[in-house]
Design goal:
heterodimer; A: alpha/beta; Rossmann fold; 3-methyladenine DNA Glycosylase II, Chain A, domain 3; 3 domains; three-stranded parallel beta sheet; B: alpha+beta; 5 strands; 35% helix
């Protein structure tokens, strides 16, 4: 796979003050502060966006495409995440918001929420047919999939091998709405930084059908400004079940399996995966795991408070479900929604390919860790004393990068100086 | 190399920590994920048993290139009838605990299934020593 190390989360060096806040919250210990600036270790980053949320300076950001990227294509199809609907209050209906996207320069829309309903149906069938092999983990959240690749490779075979709603929507646009055309640009309107990455380095397929990812925060203002003047047409096709994918529990509710659980927020996802790896979830059939707090509504590219957005989407779900069902936007029968390739482990935490060498490094790491103060102060630029010990064992840092170690050495040196100063050449020694 | 852990018996919120640490060490060493999971499941079961039934104890995990040996030792009540305990579905847990999802009687059979060698040395009133061996094959990964 090309561009394996590409990831969306990046640093604005001009804004970073080297404060070390971000390093503590990174779930894969992928950030180090060097020379007063944070730097991200590409192979470890899972694009969860946790550092974007935590950075007090706003120096972390997600690379996404600008609205101007539309100009590259004669036909421009917006595939908005259902999270977009939660950014606006109830004055604007889903129909209205979709019409607003057309007014911004898109030529067509297909709701990711509608594709999500197809994914739900396929997932439901998969979980039913493979019930003995569960619990199955939703593969919709790309940061969670990457987390599994990096930290929980033993759970890779538990991922539901079904395309994400974004990828399914993009493919349907190309295969069913505009078959045989090569001038179609499909743009995901995204709450999520990791979706930018998977549109370039996809999961479960060799090439993504998504041509660009535009952050919700980048369409929010233009959309908000244009909406009051846009006439409303009946464009929305998704039902409540599809909209619910924007927030935690939505995907599980759509699945309707009472033995499913849902978890959001990267730390809680990690604790559920630890338990799953220990074999303690025997009665669970399905795990909806979302890296962001409250689910996609908590994504780093959103503008509205996640909980307000979730509340609004819930209201929309009820309203839409009270209306008669509309005709499907396209015929999806026979569409292959399964993964075309499996997702591989990314052993970025491994010390060395050779287990013997790795063991020697780990012994060294243990010895170094023992000698450190254990305060996890972050002054060395590593997230914890243990991570620092690992960096030293890997040859990425030296012991005296620890301020306490340095002070110890200085004291020893000073003592040596005093001792030496007391020494007299034998010829002058009067004792 | 050997990793040593004291497993406290009075704090359920810390139960499973030793297994998690061993798991982390194994992933740093690049151990095959399937083998890592077997160690995790077997050790976690043993660690939980030690916390729930025996008031804690000590755990030592010895990692060699071809195998992981975990020894968990406690001075708890011991196991009255080991043959019975090894049977699937046998449990001494009260109904109340089973309703919570514990005590399904899968603990020891699960440990056996996930280890290549399992030895339980137990004496009622004296304690239990569980030895788990999981053999390691070759580390896997895209560039292994």
């Amino acid at each position: 796979m090309n561009g394996e190390s590409f990831h969306s989360v990046t640093l604005d060096p001009a804004k970073c003050t080297g404060c070390t806040t971000c390093i503590r919250f990174c779930p894969t210990e992928a950030i180090r502060v060097r020379k007063g600036r944070a730097s991200i270790m590409d192979e470890r980053c899972i694009d969860c966006g946790e550092c974007i949320r935590r950075c007090p300076q706003g120096a972390k950001r997600a690379v996404s495409d600008p609205l101007a990227a539309l100009e590259r294509f004669p036909v421009r199809v917006a595939i908005p995440a259902p999270t977009l609907y939660g950014q606006f209050d109830e004055r604007y209906t889903v129909d209205h918001i979709l019409c607003g996207l057309l007014a911004l320069g898109f030529t067509d829309v297909l709701e990711v929420a509608w594709a999500a309903e197809l994914v739900s149906a396929a997932t439901s069938a998969w979980v039913r047919e493979h019930s003995g092999q569960g619990p199955w983990i939703s593969s919709a959240c790309p940061a969670v999939v990457k987390l599994i690749q990096v930290r929980f490779p033993s759970l890779l075979d538990k991922l539901v091998p079904i395309l994400s709603p974004m990828e399914a929507a993009a493919r349907l646009v190309k295969e069913r709405m505009y078959p045989g055309r090569d001038d179609i640009g499909v743009f995901f309107i995204s709450p999520c930084a990791a979706k930018v990455t998977v549109s370039r380095c996809p999961q479960g397929t060799t090439a993504s059908a998504v041509d660009g990812v535009i952050g919700i925060k980048d369409v929010y203002l233009p959309l908000r400004n244009i909406l009051p003047g846009v006439p409303e047409r009946p464009l929305g096709r998704a039902r409540g079940k599809g909209l619910g994918w924007a927030h935690i529990d939505g995907e599980s509710d759509a699945l309707g399996d009472p033995r499913g659980i849902s978890v959001s927020g990267i730390d809680d996802v990690i604790s559920v995966f630890e338990a799953l790896e220990n074999g303690t979830m025997r009665n669970v059939t399905f795990i909806e795991a979302l890296a962001c707090p409250a689910g996609c509504v908590g994504g780093p590219l959103t503008v509205e408070n996640p909980y307000i957005a979730r509340g609004r989407i819930r209201v929309r779900e009820r309203r839409i479900d009270a209306l008669p069902e509309r005709e499907a936007p396209l015929d999806a029968s026979g569409f292959n929604i399964l993964w075309q390739e499996s997702v591989q482990p990314r052993p970025a935490l491994r010390l060395d390919k050779d287990i013997l060498k790795a063991m020697i490094m780990m012994e060294e790491m243990e010895v170094i860790a023992e000698s450190l103060p254990g305060l996890d102060c972050g002054s060395c630029g590593a997230p914890s004393c243990r991570a620092f010990a690992e960096d030293v064992a890997r040859g990425l840092a030296v012991k005296t990068d620890c301020i306490f170690k340095l002070r110890e050495d200085v004291r020893k040196l000073a003592e040596q100086l005093i001792d030496m100063e007391r020494m007299q050449p034998p010829g002058l020694d009067k004792d | 190399m050997t990793l040593h852990y004291d497993v406290p018996g009075d704090d359920m919120s810390l139960a499973g920590k030793a297994s998690t640490e061993v798991k982390r060490a194994l992933s740093r060493l690049g151990v095959n994920p399937a083998e890592l999971k077997r160690v995790a499941v077997a050790m976690y079961e043993a660690e939980m048993n030690m916390v729930i039934h025996a008031g804690g104890g000590v755990a030592n995990a010895t990692i060699e290139p071809d195998k992981v040996t975990v020894v968990l030792e406690d001075s708890g009540p011991g196991i009255q009838d080991l043959d019975m305990a090894m049977q699937e579905g046998f449990s001494t847990a009260p109904e109340r605990m089973r309703e919570l999802g514990f005590g399904a009687g899968m603990g020891l059979p699960n440990m056996k299934r996930n280890s290549d060698y399992l030895d339980i040395d137990t004496e009622p009133g004296r304690g239990t020593r569980v030895t788990i061996v999981v053999r390691l094959g070759t580390p896997t990964g895209p560039d292994a």
